[in-house]
Amino acid sequence: MVQCSFVSFGAFGERATVPGHSPDPRTSFVRLTPPPCGQPPPPHPVPWQHGGVTAATDSPLFPQAPDSPDAVLEGLDPEQREVATALHGPVCVLAGAGTGKTRAITHRIAYGVRAGILPPASVLAVAFTQRAAGEMRGRLRALGAHGVQARTFHSAALRQLQFFWPRAVGGELPQLLERKAALVAEAATRCRLRLDRNELRDVTSEIEWSKVTQTVPEDYPAAAAKAGRQAPRDPAETGRIYALYEQLKRERSVIDFEDVLLLTVAVLEDRADIAETVRGQYQHFVVDEYQDVSPLQQRLLELWVGERESLCVVGDASQTIYSFTGATADHLLDFRTRHANATVVKLVRDYRSTPQVVHLANGLLTQASGRAAEHRLELVSQREAGPEPVHAEYADEPGEAEGTARRIRDLIASGVPASEIAVLYRINAQSEVYEQALADVGVPCQLRGAERFFERPEVREAFVVLRGAARAGGNDALLDDAVDLPSQVRAVLGTKGWSPQAPAGSGAVRDRWESLAALVRLATDFAAARPQVTLSDLVTELDERARAQHAPTVEGVTLASLHAAKGLEWDAVFLVGLTDGMLPLTYARTDEQIEEERRLLYVGITRARRILTLSWALARSPGGRPGRQPSRFLKGLRRGGAGAASRAGTATGSVEGGSGPYRVPGTRSRVRRAPARCRVCGRSLTDPGEVKLMRCEDCPSELDEVLYERLHQWRAGQAALLGQPDYCVFTDKTLLAIAETVPGDEAALARISGVRARKLQQYGADVLALCAGEELPKTEEKET
Description:
By secondary structure, the chain is an alpha/beta fold. It is built from 28 helices and 20 strands. It folds into five domains: 69-166 and 262-347, 3-Layer(aba) Sandwich (Rossmann fold), CATH 3.40.50.300; 177-252; 381-451 and 555-634, Rossmann fold (3-Layer(aba) Sandwich), CATH 3.40.50.300; 453-548, no CATH class; 678-783, DNA polymerase, domain 1, CATH 1.10.150.
């Protein structure tokens, strides 16, 4: 789990550090006793111009706070303004993708605060991720709405729990369990069950789902069957593991993240005096992404709000993609039933995407079914026309990755920043082949969901040296020749690895440089917005951004799962691996599960501002049987109708878009290889790892261990020269295949999967020399 820091909880405690996590808990089995421990848009949509409205998702990097309440409303479109001025009674905002929902609700809070209607300390804005909460805090600060709390459900609940626990139960709050997997594994062992890594992950997810859906251990088998869940083990076994896991937590006086909400609800239900204290502190609530609320989060929200109705919720049923964790859009769709006097506002003006992208997204939802589809929003693009989305079909997954990487390289060469490009996939396991393909063409990338920007070691070091230089002022010799803030920052960060030119390749060295370069760009933008700022002002700004988790942009193509991409946007998006069995995933069997997979694709499509490519591969590996089908969700969306692909490109690089199929410029047809067979037993191979080795994993190998060790040492030297991870030279499986076959010439080396033409040209001579037992010149003596 990621370690996140939360600032003080208003009147309920001091600053604390807690781990971050998304699922939520349940309360019925916990007692409060001290523990022993569509339609296409108009051909030429005209952006709404009255009042100088600006794009909903664009804002100045360092805006000046509005000088009056009315100034807060400037630039909002009519529907956004209606949201911002609806400050009394329940409000439900149905906001489509890219329509400026965060803009609307933050301006609503700021307008209420600046007009004196909403006391800032009485407002609690709730988001679902630390990033979203941090963005809200940053926007509110820029609008002059200081003192408003913007938090996740978990962070708000934890502060209340920490503050009230001694009064409600006595003693200190039990320690928070940061990682539950080890305790789940121990519970399984005590049940005399052995879980492999995947089963452990899945059983842990089932426990989390049970708690957020208010399911006690003994009821798990029946509840899982009713929900149509695919249990990783026999449901009765999972229920036993769940029960023993809870017992182990009680014995060790620890709580998990699901228990944070569980216990907060229990305290508020059990102690009316504490509930009234909380309601006295917070009287106005705003909930973002309301379609993702779980039953327990809804229960906690109702306890916070009490009998009052000062509640504003924002959501889009078509973006409900977390039902597997217990989330449900029913709370959003039933809001008007629960609050008959609610003001309902629909935001459908899409400021993010071109009419072509919006048309595709609308078309996808016209095929949807179920309750969420009945309430879908028809988006209307407010942007100028752009290129048609491209549909690309490839022979195999490596070919798809290579073709995507080449197109990305060409986009960057044409002027699109790498940070404005994303490759999105269904599951994280798909990322590796794209990391490799991008490294092969020299394009840096960053994995979404990896380490937070402000927690990176190089960023922490940069903070230290910048703060030191700010304190030294004119006494720091580094700053003697620096005439302005950007040059001061460049001089200081130059001591930590920043340079005007980026290092070649990718990997750790490039990642470090990119982090420092992001700080340099931030300083440049800061100085441009406020010419008189000092280094001390920048340090203060960085501290504020770190607290809000408002990271600067890092140059590098983003690789992310569709779930991790929620709430983000890029100029160019590549949706890859779009085959039946991957999207929708094979285990999505019920109508509800299939529709959630469709909504996930909708989320992916609506991440793109202008350029969108959707691709799939007919086979998993080179030479494999081309038996895959494009995702059923693409049917009817491709130009030319449902059959537009017409198998028009079993060759790598076949693409369709605009008026029909065409081939990606610069790509070549791949010669169809014969199916790969094991060189030992002759069986057909489909697993990529076995294809690389040209043998079954279980078949005996004739490994030259000395050669294998020499290849490893050589690879490490090459990777160090390039500043890239070792696998960017050759993967372990490729080295193993070389050491087993010991090729004697280029033709034999080229037959090894993983040794493509570029690698053969770059490394072939060295590898063949090593295979022949020759000594290579020392790395530092070779030309680079």
